[in-house]
Amino acid sequence: MPEPKHHKIVIIGSGPAGFTAAIYAARANLKPIIIQGMQPGGQLTLTTEVDNFPGFEHGTTGPELMQKMQAQAERFGTEMVFDTVASVDFSRRPFTITCDGGDLFTADAVIVCTGASARWLGLESEKRLNGFGVSACATCDGFFFKGRKVAVVGGGDTAVEEAIFLTNFCSKVYLIHRRDAVRAEIIMQEKMFANPKIEPVWNSVVDEILGEPGQGGGVRGVRVKNVRTGALQEIPVEGVFIAIGHKPNTDIFKGQLEMDEQGYLITRPDSTATNIPGVFAAGDVQDKVFRQAITAAGTGCMAALEAERLLASQEQGPARK
């Protein structure tokens, strides 16, 4: 068993929440480390264009934004650990974090920024065209399809909301659903059926996404299969939005941190504090509503400030204001 390495703050997971937390914690001279996980930089590393993050008047790319955030965190002394957390023990202080590579860390405070992963259809073409017309975030990417035809896959609240949102930009939105009715709230269904730009494609699943990646390429259509008749149909679209839900990356925290029925970590109102004093959660791991880079960064800031005040109160008495 390796000797544990102790740090005042350990941040589990990177991305906007993790890097922002690290910037604030490092500037407070808390010498944080980030255990980056399987996907350093988080979901934004799969996003080609980012036009809605403040400070980039001409836009940027997801990987570039994450590289800049990481460099800023490192500039203030954050240590990056390129490993994945295998298990945690929050039952006693200091907290213990065990990594897949065998390293063992202890911490006075932990900030969980493990994010959430979009649920995908599992098609090879979906993976190949991700970032070239295939997306899991209409709010992030809808603007790029102005005046074009797109498809949304799903039948829950998220799918219907994204279909309605996309009509602000797109000329036509096909909603592809495996059943003959959506599961969204009634008021959302009413809005959807009242919108002439939305055309449901009932009893159908995506058989293939058509197109080629690369410059000048992209999605050119989607082939759907009717689950009742087996008939195939090609629909010409230039964008496909997968809206079948997200899965928070919280499996390693089960039995220790409180979470809702979907697995999102529960934090106190107006706080990032979890049910374990000294453990905080920021970003998409606790936010199932907005799921934006800027909101993740904001909660990362909150978590670092709350952790700093907690540690200060334990070491020096009353927390600083």
Structural write-up:
The chain has 321 residues and is of the alpha/beta class. Helices cover 25% and strands 26% of the residues. It contains 7 helices and 17 strands. α5 (157-166) links the parallel β9 (149-153) and β10 (172-176). α1 (15-27) packs parallel to α7. The model has no long low-confidence stretch (mean pLDDT 93).
Question: Could you give a quick summary of the protein structure above?
Answer:
The chain contains 7 helices and 17 strands. With 321 residues, the protein is an alpha/beta fold. It is elongated.
Q: What spatial form do the alpha-carbon principal axes imply?
A: elongated
Task: Kindly state the percentage of residues in helix.
Answer: 10-25%
Average predicted local confidence, pLDDT = 93
End-to-end C-alpha gap: 41 Å
Percent in strands: 25-35%
List strands and helices in order, with pairings.
Elements: E1 5-12, H1 15-27, E2 33-35, H2 62-75, E3 79-81, E4 85-89, E5 95-99, E6 104-112, E7 116-118, H3 124-128, E8 134-135, H4 138-141, E9 149-153, H5 157-166, E10 172-176, H6 186-194, E11 198-201, E12 204-212, E13 218-226, E14 232-235, E15 239-242, E16 246-248, E17 279-281, H7 293-316
Parallel strand pairs: 1-2, 1-6, 2-3, 6-17, 8-15, 9-10, 9-15, 10-11
Antiparallel strand pairs: 4-5, 5-6, 7-16, 12-13, 13-14
Helix pairs in contact: 1-2, 1-7, 5-6
Top keywords for this entry?
17 strands; single chain; 26% strand; elongated; 5-stranded parallel sheet; 7-stranded mixed sheet; 7 helices; alpha/beta; 321 residues
